[in-house]
Amino acid sequence: MSPKHKKLIVIVPMPGTYMLDIAGPLDVFAAADRMLCETAGKDDVGYEIVTASPLSTKKITTKSGVEITCPTKVDELDRPIDTLIVAGFSIRNQETGKRFCQWLKNAYPGMRRIGSVCVGTYALAEAGILHGKQATTHWEFSQDFQRRYPDIKVDTNPFYTRDGNVYTSGGVASGIDLALALVEEDYGRDVALAAARKLVLFLKRTGYQSQFSTLLQVHSMENSIAGKLQPWMMQHLQDDLSVEELAVHSNMSLRNFNRIFQKETGMTPGKFVEKLRIEMARKYLEDSDLSMEQIAEKCGLGGIVSMRRTFMRHMMVSPSDYRRTFRTSLQTVH
């Protein structure tokens, strides 16, 4: 059944946000609206898309330095909002953040649904909208987000999540995945697929955010046992890196080594070594022509079958599929 009026989509671009956070969802809704107008032949089907500034000014400066002039500000919106999407957020800008989050908290009950792109999840959390819900955000901020909001169930594997009428998406381009899902929810797969084809996009990307994330944030534990051991371990991935061997190399008793290592890193030494090996395997898959057998041997991952099983467990994709997706795009010119 066709709606009597176009659905009002409000995108809120936060200062310092990547252009793609904003432009990605905007273009998806615009493409879908055009498809609907052409096929339905009616002006009251589809989307009315508006960017609304969260500031006292209508001008927003993006991370790339490009300035966006919004036609309105959030507190000037006087029509029912179907869908509002917060693109980005800065937890450090206390004044802007607090004022906008209060507006968001008050306006949310009148919306059909609300969503976020990348760290826009912080705005929904600050407004209390995500209390007790499941959410995702950019993989790089998962630990910080979970620490700040322990009542929210954070899963940074999916590109986007839904909990009730609240939608959150992961890093930057995930806003496109979310927008396509919302279009499909509103008008069906055919319209969403037509919009995706128009923009030369996948309707649903394969994989998970984990394929883009860093398994180990070693730089954040430089003074820990793991941080001190890491350079040596990188040179000996092919060797025996058992807990006993690591303890001996650290001149510590096995019991004390285990206790301190887990306290500092939040994981067992064995799990740390496994993640380190997968990180190195990723680099070889991305940057080298080494065969799977050679990579498995160099990284201490056993044979091909063993490497594939371990890689799938951490990355949720096979090594060969990962290589096809993330291999350098630079080709030798003859």
Automatic annotation (TrEMBL):
What InterPro entries does this protein map onto? Class_I_gatase-like (IPR029062), DJ-1/PfpI (IPR002818), Homeodomain-like_sf (IPR009057), HTH_AraC (IPR018060), INH-QAR (IPR052158)
Domain of life from the UniProt record: Bacteria
Entry's SUPFAM superfamilies? Class I glutamine amidotransferase-like, Homeodomain-like
Matching entries from PROSITE patterns are given as:
HTH_ARAC_FAMILY_2 (PS01124)
GO MF annotations, alphabetized: DNA-binding transcription factor activity; sequence-specific DNA binding
Q: Which UniProt keywords apply?
A: Transcription, Transcription regulation
The residues covered by the HTH araC/xylS-type domain are 227-325
Its protein name is Transcriptional regulator, AraC family
Give the organism's phylogenetic lineage: Bacteria, Pseudomonadati, Bacteroidota, Chitinophagia, Chitinophagales
